[in-house]
Amino acid sequence: MKNWYAVYVNSRHEKKVSGLLDLQNIENYLPLQKTMKQWSDRKKLVEEPLFRSYVFTHISEEEKLKVRETKGVLNFVYWLGQPAVIRDQEIEIIKNFLGQYQNIEVREFKPELNNSIKIESGPLMNQIGTIIKVGKTKVKVLIESLGCYLIADVPINKVLPLPVTKK
User: Fold this and answer.
1) What is the mean pLDDT of the chain?
2) Which residues contact 20 (CB under 8 A, 6 or more apart)?
3) In the beta sheet, which residues pair with residue 35?
4) What is the pLDDT of residues 74-112, one digit of tens each?
5) Do residue 141 and residue 86 come from a single domain?
6) How far apart are CA 150 and CA 142, in angstroms?
7) What number is the average pLDDT over the span 53-70?
8) 109, part of any domain
9) pLDDT exceeds cutoff 70 at 147
10) Which helix (DSSP H) or strand (DSSP E) does residue 90 occupy?
């Protein structure tokens, strides 16, 4: 069974690593966006990685060592002590997003107090709440339902940020 993983690569070596993985017949995806660069004498449309220093690989457990030994690869991206598995749907979302939009900015989600979130899985799946405490691997979420407040410790990897609504 194959999963998508993000690998961390040497700075400005994303295209080179992607090419080396291709030569080894390792399925990979390097999201690129076109941006206009200006020098003193000219302007040029160039393709730059959307996620700097990252390449996504679609591999089996047996291929992990081959990827790790590829020149330019530093390591897998870890989440809670394990190589982070990226869902197929998330890769498709990135591909579709790049196909529809330009000048995309990537920002990391850092759980902060009073962020509104949606719980992704578990017994509280799809519940919306507010972060009231941030720990190393868990957030304490306040969920208002049925006319009372429920407070739960939820693993950070199970919460999704909700868009900020303007009042």
Assistant:
1) 87
2) 70, 71, 72
3) 46
4) 999 987 788 989 989 989 989 988 888 877 778 777 788
5) no
6) 6
7) 97
8) no
9) no
10) helix 88-100
Residues in the chain: 167
One-letter identity of residue 83 = P
Sheet holding 159-161, edge to edge: 148-155, 138-145, 128-134, 116-119, 159-161
Residues with Cβ within 8 Å of residue 113, at least 6 apart in sequence:
131, 132, 133, 134
**Position with higher pLDDT, 160 vs 9:** 9
Range of the domain at 55: 3-100
Copy the structure tokens of residue 75: 């390591």
Q: Hey, CA dihedral for 28, 33, 38, 42, is it positive or negative?
A: positive
Q: How far apart are CA 134 and CA 124, in angstroms?
A: 18
Q: Which helix (H) or strand (E) covers residue 51, if one does?
A: none
Q: Is residue 157 part of a domain?
A: yes
Above 90 in pLDDT, residue 28? Answer: yes
